[in-house]
Design brief:
This protein is an alpha/beta fold and about 260 residues long. Helix content is about 55%, strand content about 10%. α1 packs antiparallel against α2. The chain is globular, with a radius of gyration of 21 Å. The N terminus is likely disordered.
């Protein structure tokens, strides 16, 4: 099992650098060395979190090495136990259903509203997977029905190795991930909005339209049923700001990476 128990904390590294490089008169090019070292440390905490997430995925039985090589459109790992991508009901993706079961998947969350001529649920169940139809969109669906499904959505996302998808695994999937982050008291990881990055800008209007409708209509009793106490409003506002800032930065970073390529 991978472990980070022997990795030093970033603060220890920073203190070492300050005490042994910045204050060492014999240090050669100490300013450049210190600057380079501190730049390397800038993402240290993010690395540790990623390492912990990797450990968790392994502990939960997800075969991440094989999963990441599957040719599924828009495939991404989310939180410690989830996957997102294009629907597995398409002709070119159906073959992955039993493979994902073999690689540790437990449940499939289908976010689409209307679809015909498919046996997606039967394919999932015949492979030994749980199938959950939890329709989510930005504004057409009845908000109360989405709220009614939120306890089930959160239960699956908290406890199962799951695969979440809409048609392309982008827009509705982003909305579902946002609902989970803002309204599920047990979640902590900020989701990346892959389907709402446009030319370095985080385009979130349709996401916030749905989030706003849920926030207006959800009742205090429904919040208590989800596990919230009196701290919901403060936590919600804090998470919403962190989510917004994080995804603005991610959209800008994606644009930079795209221009480099």
């Amino acid at each position: 099992m991978l472990t980070i128990s022997n990795l030093p904390r970033s603060n220890s590294y920073q203190n070492y650098i300050k005490n042994n490089i910045q204050n060492d008169p014999k240090s050669i090019s100490k300013d450049n060395c210190t600057k380079n070292c501190l730049n390397l440390l800038a993402n240290y905490n993010k690395f540790v979190v990623s390492f912990q997430s990797l450990n968790s995925q392994i502990e939960k039985g997800l075969d991440i090495n094989n999963i990441k090589n599957l040719r599924i459109g828009n495939l991404r790992f989310v939180e410690n136990n989830g996957l997102r991508g294009e629907t597995l009901s398409s002709k070119r993706h159906k073959r992955f259903i039993p493979i994902l079961k073999e690689y540790g998947l437990k449940s499939v969350i289908d976010l689409r509203d209307k679809f015909t001529g498919e046996n997606y649920e039967d394919l999932c169940k015949s492979a030994g997977l749980n199938y959950y139809h939890i329709p989510i969109d930005s504004f057409k669906l009845d908000t109360s029905k989405i709220i009614d499904k939120m306890p089930l959505l959160f239960k699956v996302m908290d406890n199962d190795n799951y695969y979440m998808a809409c048609a392309l695994g982008l827009h509705r999937t982003d909305i579902a991930q946002t609902i989970n982050y803002l309204f599920n008291p047990k979640t902590h990881d900020i989701p990346i909005m892959y389907g709402h990055q446009r030319n370095g800008i985080f385009k979130r209007d349709d996401i916030m339209r749905r989030i706003g409708s849920i926030k207006r209509e959800i009742t205090p009793q429904q919040l208590r049923d989800l596990g919230w106490g009196s701290d919901f409003e403060s936590v919600y506002q804090m998470r919403k700001q962190k989510y917004t800032d994080f995804n603005i930065a991610e959209a800008q970073k994606a644009m930079v990476n795209k221009s480099v390529l």
